[in-house]
Design goal:
single chain; 510 residues; alpha/beta; three-stranded mixed beta sheet
Length: 510
Amino acid sequence: MLPTTKYTESHMHKATKVNKLAAKVQLCVKMEETFLWDIWVEEALTKLESLKLMRSLRPIHLPLPNVVTDRCSFNSGSIANSSSNLDRDFRFFDGPQKWDRASVEANISEATFRKWLHDIPSAGDDNEVESGRDGKLKKLIVFSGNDYLGLSLHPTVIDAASKAPWEHGMGPRGSALICGYTSYHRLLESSLADLKRKEDCLLCPTGFSANMAFMTAVGSVSLLIAGTKPSKDDKVAIFSDALNHASIIDGIRLAEKQGSAVTFVYRHCDMSHLDALLSNCSMKKRVVITDSLFSMDGDFAPMTELAKLRKKHGFLLVIDDAHATFVCGKTGGGAAEKFDCETCVDICIGTLSKAAGCHGGFIACSKKWKLLIQSRGRSFIFSTSAPVPVAAAAHAAVVVATNESWRRQAILNRVQEFRALTGIPVVSHIISIVVGSEDKALQASRHLLKLGFHITAIRPPTVSPNSCRLRITLSAAHTKDDLIKLTSALSQCISFKEVEACSPSCYSKL
């Protein structure tokens, strides 16, 4: 019986191993739906650890102070109470206050005004010279900024920024991987991770550097796993929308320079084209990256369709949510929240220099991805960390943006009002009016300048030739009266009927 028992035990052991292997294969097949990336990132991290190249963040503790101080100039207005202990001293308001208006107003000198009208190059010293001489300034309503919620002048944000240097100095004292990462930076990362419904978040000096850091890190995966220059099929396939931001494009170029990535550009928001490219691609490590809201066109990426393709092809879905973060979605979570597909977005890249009214960039992701990016993302590794007051102000802005939901509603109202006043079927707070040639765009911009509106002409290389445009951005601080005046001025140089008929392009009357 003994030999039979041994044989049976051995047979059972082998059968168990076969079953486990089969289960693992089935799991991998299932994980093809995107989570093979988790395995690849783990392999890359294991390689980094074996080479002793893993980099760590170790926060330097700076006591988090009470952020808001009493300022008589900000005592008016109703204040909402926060439920969080960390931001119990933050002040929130249930409607526009007097300081909001300043975020959409600008003064320029007579010299700057004249040079702008005649397209004379300037070194930027006009304001200083002119203002110092006679103090004559022209006030403009700004319809070209990115301070979408008007938070750059919010008292809670200002108080956070002004109190931090008195208690801790400006900082930082180095890069994030040396001694520039503090408890303020960690608090900001945590708040952004919560906003984006992600496991963690990595702060970067700017939104531009965030895209650069991610692309170089994702390109390093195949290099680390292969241990040498990977074969074509082992490289990372990056699928990029034709109108993606320059920071994405430059990051992809760096990844290509590493010899670890191949790029496929799909027609703008064309999911049929993307589907075809993915179907014909033999490479397993696939990444689709897109702006969520395109800054020069004002249209959203087809988030729902991207989510369906992700399930079909198993790629890593990455969005640059720079222009939708804090503005879109019930809580300001961005485009993914707006289109109810947060779980389908694997990595969300964003900025704090637009709707947050502050400065810096971030990558909301898993802890594994964070470890990889902070160890391989060159623009993160070799940059000085954000100053402590900036991190404190940005955290305050995140909290305010989340709590003051009326700001998002105000922007939505302005979008609807612009649509009603012009008949142009705009879908977001970024309105792109294409006028064609540079001369036409400059003439339209000058016309609006004369009438008191700050709207710059967007020209090559930002946009392609003969697609020059007026880029109008709406803010929570704008009023309906502002829009009535703006659309009246626009109607003198733009045919709204032609815009409606030929959307998204239009033709100039000039």
